[in-house]
Structure formats: C-alpha cells, structure tokens
Amino acid sequence: MSEIDLSTKKRQAPIGVAILFLLNLRKAVNLFIPFLFLKYGAGSSLLGISLYAIGIILFLGFIAFSYFEYKNFFFYAVEDKFIIERGVFRKDKTTIPFERIQTVHTAQNLAQQLFKVVGLKIDTAGSADNEIEIPALDRSYARSLQEYLLKKKEKDQKQQSEPGEEETTAQPEVESWEKPILKLSIKDLLKVGLTENHLRSGLILFAVVNGYIWQFEEFLLEPFEPYLEEAEGWLTQWVLLLPFTIIVFIVVSVAFSLIRIVLRYFNLQFFLNERGLVLKSGLLKRNEFHVPRNKIQYFKWSSNPLRKLLGFKTFVVKQAGVNENREDKRTVSVPGCKNKQLIDVLQEFYPERYTGKFHRLGSHKLLFFQRFIWLVMMPSIIVTASFYASELTWHYFAPIPLFVLLGGFWAHKFQRSVQFRTNGEVIEIKKGWIFPSHLSITMYKLQNVSLKRSIFQRRRGLSTLVFFTAAGDESMPHLSHNDAIDIYNFVLYKIESSQKSWM
C-alpha cells in the first residue's frame, strides 16, 4: 500500500456531492416533511405556495447546499496533526493530533455501497461526540488513509513514551499477521437470529412503533374512529383475544429478530491481527471496526437457553473511551461464537488467564432473599390485593402460588450462579442461570476498586466489591467481608505495582 501525500489539501471523491445530498435530504425528511404533509396535506399550500413547489425548491436548495458543502470540505496533515476544514455558512476547522486518535473505522451505508465509496470514521480521545467522519472516499484511498493515520498515531505515541530517544533511531516495524476467528454463513446467521432474545426484540419493536405512531395520533387514527367505537364491546373480552395476541407477538418478535440480525451481522468476519481485533459486518450498512490492543479493557460473553443448545455465545469486547450516552456505543459484539473461538481470543490477549490456579467465591444467600422478595413476593402481593379488591373468583388466584414456587426456584438458582474467581492476574465474574454471562478482566486494566456495605450487609458480615475500568464498572455482590477486604487490598496492590499500562 503506497504512502499517501497529505501535505496539500485533499477533497473527497467527486461522488461525495451525491452522498452529502442524500444525508441532508434524510435529515430534512426526518425533521420537516412529515410535519408539513400531515399538518397541511399534500395538496395544500403554505403562504400561497403549494407544497409540491416548496418540495421542488427545497430539493434544488439541497443540491446547491451539498455542492458547496463538498467544495468546502478539505482534509490534510501539518506536522503531527490531521486537520479537517468544512462548513458552508459557518466554517469549522478541526485539528486532531495524531496521538489523540483512538482508532479509525470504515463504514458503508446503502448509498455509499451503490456509489462504491467508503466513509471513514475517526474516534478521538476527549471529543464531545467521540467521532469525526469523512463521508465519501474511494475504497483504496480510504484504506491508504486509514493505514497512514494508524501508523502516524503509533509513531507519535511511541515517541511520547520514549522522549529521550533520538528521532533518527530506526524503529523495527511490527510484522503484519492476520488470524481469522469467525465467519458467519447464512445458515449460522439464521441460527443466531432464531436463538435471539425474542421477548426483548418484541418489546423494542413495540416501544419504537408506539413512540413513532402516537406522534401522529390525530391524523392516523381519525379514519378508524367509527371502527374503534364499535370495537369497545368485544375488546372487553380480552381473555378470548389473549392467545391470539400472544401468537401474533411471538411471530412478529421472531421476524424482527431475524431481520435485525441479518441487517447487522450479514457476512460477518471476525479476526485478529498485530494491532488488535477487527470486525466486519452489515448488509444495508457495512461497518468495519478496528479495536487496538491498548484500547481493549475486558471481555464479556453471554448466552441464553436456545443458544446453549447450539453451543453459541455472544462475545463482547469492552473498550476504553466509550461514551455511554451515544446510540452507537462502539461496543464490539460478536454473536455465534463457540468455545474454541472464545479460547483463541482469550489466549491471544489474556495469556495470564491460563497460568495459576483459580480461587473461587460465591455470593451469600442474602442475594436470594433480595431477588425473591422484590421480584417475586412483592408482585404477588400487589396482584393478589388487586384481584381481591376486584372481587374476582378463586380461578384468578390459582396461578399465584405456582408463580411464587417458580420464582423462588429461579431466585435460588440465580444466587447459586453468581461466582467470583481469580488466579492473581485475572478477575472473572459469572452471573445468571437462564441467561448466563461471564466477564474476564486482567488486573492491570483496573483503574480502581471500591468496597461497599449496606446496613443489611453489615449485620451479616458482607460486602460488595465494585471494579472500575476505562470501559465501565462491574460488581460482585454479597461476599464475605473478610474475603472482600483481602481481595480489595490485593487488587489495590496489583494496580499500584503493575508496570503495564491500561491504555
């Protein structure tokens, strides 16, 4: 791959005008078009101008705006900085020191795939939205620019960590290598979709559709008002409708899960290289995520009853610098992993996990009582009281004892599943019976540890440990206080004495 020259200002690919136009048009459609047509109607007018004419004017305006936006978008490099200039009415100049670059991703939405261009996304340390994007580059040029930025970043970071070293000293280059870990076929993708958490998928779909539709309640429901009034009588027979509603909910949830999984993970390729982890996936929007080794904080994997039958796990890479408020949290999630693929990744990044003997500790029975009281007994009491107040027959009360028994069994199994273990170099926490999860953190990635005690824990000699990393915190509840103190002191010692950097 040839070295690119960024000493002079560069523009995006010429087709970038079309990409910018589509981006601007999508924003306008989301913000203005539905409001105008719902408020005034397609054949109405605004200030004496028909909405069709307004649409044509806006269309031409977006073309002109997109052209000037393209003409005013430049990127180049000066010394140790990458600079982006953009803006039509307001000029912006973004300066990014190479050492502040976290990682560089490529992405292709449907329009970019059709026009055969690639968007380049640069994640930086300390920025408000954590991302800067160049929307339209030729694929080969995007690869060259990505490689250029990553090499500059590595060079500047190495010079900062070794300030006394002469710049003229030749640095040996790291040998390039690549190890494939997982590639999902269409068959595997369908298995992943069918074993998804369909209850969660259905609730997400219901929330999204409900939130969108009721914004336009007045316009969407008006034609159906006569039918809704007639339906009030038979809607009271909800018991008859319940089985049908459940079947429809299940079918729609499964379909939504399949569609979501195929769109997100189509042609998934997951592999390791000398720099870290790489994940490529997506149908309508093709993403390529690079996670550098130093940015990886810890690993987490989980399953569910259906995926356990197939030996599938969802493998998650937690990385530093993630803004939890963003919709796209840059948490790399890889579904359909099996034990061998999981071990391959852990052996590469966490060799310490396979040295020494693990010491195991379980959570106290207080966890059982908390879950049983708050998630089983309290709902049962509320439902029983409401049924009694409604003077319902005993048939309605019959399922409640069964719910209490099953809930107690679930709370017991969950409490037994919560475990902590360490071999002195790695901390691992397991939680969950029906939906088990497992996380693994090396000691040198920890930034801090805290010990917490509630009034109920004090009376029983218990404590909760919370472990803090640059990617978030994880907790282990209800350990023996003496064991928690020993772990707390040992982890603090490892944090302070470790010579390895967490980034």
UniProtKB/TrEMBL annotation:
Its transmembrane ranges are: 12-37, 49-68, 197-215, 235-263, 366-388, 394-411
Q: Where is this region: Disordered?
A: 153-174
Q: Which domain of life is it from?
A: Bacteria
Could you list this entry's UniProt keywords, alphabetically sorted. Answer: Membrane, Transmembrane, Transmembrane helix
Domain (YdbS-like PH) spans 70-149, 265-335, 416-490
Q: What is this protein called?
A: PH domain-containing protein
- The species this protein belongs to is Salibacter halophilus
